[in-house]
C-alpha cells in the first residue's frame, strides 16, 4: 500500500508496542501470581517463558506484520499465498486471520469493562470518596457498583470513546503521540508509588515475600500460569504487534525492539509488585488477584497504610487509579487498532469511520459483558457469563492457537526468507540467531504451546 501510515520515530514505535504490553495484566496479575507461586522462583520461570516462548512469538508477529504491511487478516492471507498452499490451506490461514480480528474485538470489549471501573474509581478517589470505609464496605460498594446496569456502562462508553478518539487521530498523531505522553507518565507514577510503598514500616517483609525464591512451590501448574502470564502480558497471539509492526520502518531492528518491549513490560510488572506487597503486608492484608485486589483490597490497604497522613493517602490513591487507567488505555488502543486496520483496509472506508463504528459495536458487546456481573448473571453460554466467555476465548483459546498459526506461517516461508526478514535483508549482523530462532519457531514453540493448551483445557 503506497500511502500506508508509519510510526515517525523508533522511540515512538517502541513505546507504542510497550504500551500495548503494559496493561492491567501487569498490575493486577503479575504481582499476585508471583506472590502465590514462590516469589523469585516464579519470576525466574516467567522470565524463561518470556525469553524462550513469548519473545520469539512477538518477533514472529513483528517480522510478518512489517513484511506484509497489512492488517492481521491480510498478513496471513498474503504470506500464506506466497508459500503456495492448496485450497484447503488457503481457507485455514484465512480462518486464522479472521480469528485474530475477532479476538481483537472481544478483548477490547471485556477489557473496557474493567477499564471503565478504573475510571469510576479514579473519579471516586479524586472526589475523596474512598476514605473512611471499612473493608466490608469496600466489598459491598464494589459489588453494588459492578452489578448496576447503568453506571459501569456509562464509564465503559467513556473509556471506549477515549480509545476511539486516539485511534481516529491516526498512527502518528494518535497512537504514537499518545504513547509518548502516557508511557513516561506511567513510569513516573510507578516509581513515585513504589517509593511511597517502600517507605512504609515493614516494607522489607513485603519485598522479601515478592523476591525470595521458594523453589518448593514450582509445579507444572505454576509453569502453566507463568506461560499464560507471559502471553497475556506481551499481548502476543492475536495480532496487536503484527498490526503495529506493519507501521514500522524497514530499518528497525525487530529482535532488539522485541527484547526491549519484554524488558520494559517485566520491569513494570515488578514495580507493580513493589507497590502492592510492601503496602499490603505492612497492614497485614494478604493480596489476592483480580478485580477484588484492585477495587476492594487496595483502596482499603492504602487507607490503612497511609491513613495517618490523609493528604498522602489521597495522592497515592488517586495516582494509583490514574496509573491503572493509563495502562489500560495504552493497551486498548492496540486492541482497537487490530480491527480498525482490518475494517478500513478490507472495506475501503476511512480510518475514523471504521474506528467509530467499531467503538459503537464494542460498547454494545461490552455492555453484555458488564451485565454479566448484574442482571444477566444467569445468562450462560457454554456455562459462562459473557465476560468470562470473552476472556476464555481470548486468553485460553485465541492467544495460544493464534501463536501456533503465526509460528507455522513463518515455517512455511523457509529459513532463508525468515533470515532476511530478521536481518533487514542482510543489513544487520546476527550470526547464529536466525538459525536458532527458525528452529525454535518451527518446532519447539508450537509443540510447547500445544502441550500447554491441551493441559489448560483438560
Ligand atoms: N498486554 C495487556 C496487559 O497486560 C493485555 C492485552 C492483551 C493487550 C491482548 C493487547 C492484546 O494488560
Quick recap of the structure?
By secondary structure, this protein is mainly α. The chain has helices spanning 10-21, 24-36, 40-68, 72-82, 87-126, 135-147, 151-169, 171-198, 203-211, 220-233, 240-245, 254-282, 291-306, 310-346, 351-371, 386-413, 415-422, 433-457. The longest helix is centred in the N-terminal third of the chain and has 40 residues, at 87-126.
Give a structural overview.
The protein is globular. By secondary structure, it is mainly alpha-helical. It is built from 18 helices and no strands. Helix content is 78%, strand content 0%. Bound molecules: phenylalanine (PHE). The site of phenylalanine (PHE) has 15 residues, from helix 1, helix 2, helix 10 and helix 14.
Q: Which descriptors apply to this entry?
A:
0% strand; 458 residues; binds phenylalanine; mainly alpha; globular
Give the number of DSSP strands.
Answer: 0
Determine the strand fraction and express it as a percent band: under 5%
Element-by-element helix/strand order: HHHHHHHHHHHHHHHHHH
The major beta sheet can be summarized as: none
Q: What would the principal axes of the Cα set say about the shape?
A: globular
Q: Helix tally? A: 18
| Main structural class | mainly alpha
Give the helix/strand layout.
Layout: H1 10-21, H2 24-36, H3 40-68, H4 72-82, H5 87-126, H6 135-147, H7 151-169, H8 171-198, H9 203-211, H10 220-233, H11 240-245, H12 254-282, H13 291-306, H14 310-346, H15 351-371, H16 386-413, H17 415-422, H18 433-457
Helix pairs in contact: 1-8, 1-12, 1-14, 2-10, 2-12, 3-4, 3-10, 3-12, 3-16, 3-18, 4-5, 4-16, 5-7, 5-14, 5-15, 5-16, 6-13, 7-8, 7-14, 7-15, 8-12, 8-14, 9-12, 12-13, 13-14, 14-15, 15-16, 16-18
